[in-house]
Specification:
The complex is a heterodimer of chains A (200) and B (148). Chain A is α/β, with parallel strands linked by helices and 200 residues long. Chain A is built from 8 helices and 6 strands. Classes of the chains: A alpha/beta (200), B mainly alpha (148).
Chain lengths: 200, 148
């Protein structure tokens, strides 16, 4: 089994969206995938419920879990589990990091988001970790400068970024769009980058 | 797990992987989110410094600076030592601080105090209806009478 945890100690950086879209990308690629919703706010679960109510359910199951349940997380041998974590509930964040084969830190390019990347990297030091830039407006200087600055600072940054797209922004509560855009590329890069890594 | 999926074999160059995935190194105790972001006495640690603001009248500030220069230390170092000495007799310090209450004039300066000492001062100020500022000024006066 493989567990990816989406972690960032700040909110509004695209954790839930990334969790659902990455699981959807895995499903589209023929994988067995599901999302574990460790956020007490239950955004991923709410998304799944609304999509199901519309008659077009998400392609992956979303299961709510508490921090204590996370530590006992069991998955099938050929399954990818993507954990969505809350920004402020430390117990859930710690539990998700501890069970993850890979911690993904999605972050926007805004200064307030980047500022919290570094303490987040501190708490994931004992697990393989990477940073994914999300909500990137390609018209801005930050689209180029922020990835470069992070790499210069020794931060492990994925080559692919997730652009700030209206289709992604509007996706909450709806079925996943057929075109997964940047998330397909991100998923492919994560698969390639984690090949050969030890798994749970 | 079949090749191509996470955990399976792959063909991406190790250098490229290393640039995008940070592998854990060493066996250091993990930093925990609970300690980093939610704070607690245990998490912060007794050695953590707490910052407080003082107002020192110009004559006292100048005298302290001179003393610090002569003793090859800092003004903050002198004040901290004075507070530690003063807190050995908290009742006397609290009594002496009464004349310094509600006196706030002069230049603002910041003082970093060990967490435990800062807490003791705050508690004493609350218990004896005085202020941290007054306690600190009293401690300085007791330790360095020449600054009066």
């Amino acid at each position: 089994m493989v567990i990816w945890a989406l972690v960032h100690t700040k909110g509004g950086v695209g954790k839930t969206t990334t969790a659902v879209f990455l699981a959807a990308a895995a499903s589209k690629a023929g994988w067995r995938a599901r999302v574990v919703d460790a956020d007490p706010q239950g955004s991923a679960s709410s998304w799944a419920d609304r999509a199901a109510a519309s008659g077009m359910p998400l392609p992956v199951a979303v299961t709510p879990m508490t921090a204590s349940e996370l530590s006992g997380l069991r998955t099938a041998a050929d399954e990818l589990v993507v954990i969505d974590t809350p920004p402020g509930t430390a117990a859930a964040i710690d539990a998700a990091i501890d069970v993850a084969d890979l911690v993904i830190i999605p972050t926007g390019p805004r200064a307030a988001d980047i500022d919290r990347v570094f303490p987040t990297l501190d708490i994931t030091a004992h697990r393989p970790t990477t940073v994914l830039l999300t909500l990137v407006d390609m018209r801005t200087v930050e689209a180029v400068e922020i990835p470069r600055a992070l790499r210069d600072a020794g931060v492990p940054v994925l080559g692919n970024i997730v652009r700030d797209r209206t289709a992604v922004e509007r996706a909450f509560g709806r079925p996943i769009p057929r075109y997964l855009g940047d998330y397909s590329d991100v998923f492919d890069e994560l698969v390639a980058a984690t090949a050969g890594m030890a798994t749970t | 797990m079949t090749s191509g999926k996470p955990g399976g074999g792959g063909s991406t160059a190790d250098m490229v992987r290393a640039s995008v995935i940070r592998r854990p190194t060493g066996a250091a105790t993990p930093v925990r989110a609970a300690a980093t972001f939610q704070g607690s006495d245990a998490a912060v640690g007794a050695e953590a410094m707490m910052r407080t603001t003082l107002q020192l009248v110009p004559s006292l500030r100048t005298a302290l600076k001179r003393l610090a220069l002569d003793a090859e230390t800092t003004m903050s170092g002198l004040i901290r030592a004075a507070i530690v000495a003063g807190m050995e007799h908290p009742d006397e310090l609290a009594a002496a601080s009464l004349e310094h209450r509600r006196v706030s004039a002069g230049a603002r300066t910041t003082l970093d105090l060990p967490r435990d000492l800062h807490r003791s001062l705050k508690r004493l100020a609350a218990d004896r209806d005085t202020s941290v500022q007054a306690l600190v000024i009293a401690a300085i006066s007791r330790a360095h009478p020449a600054t009066k």
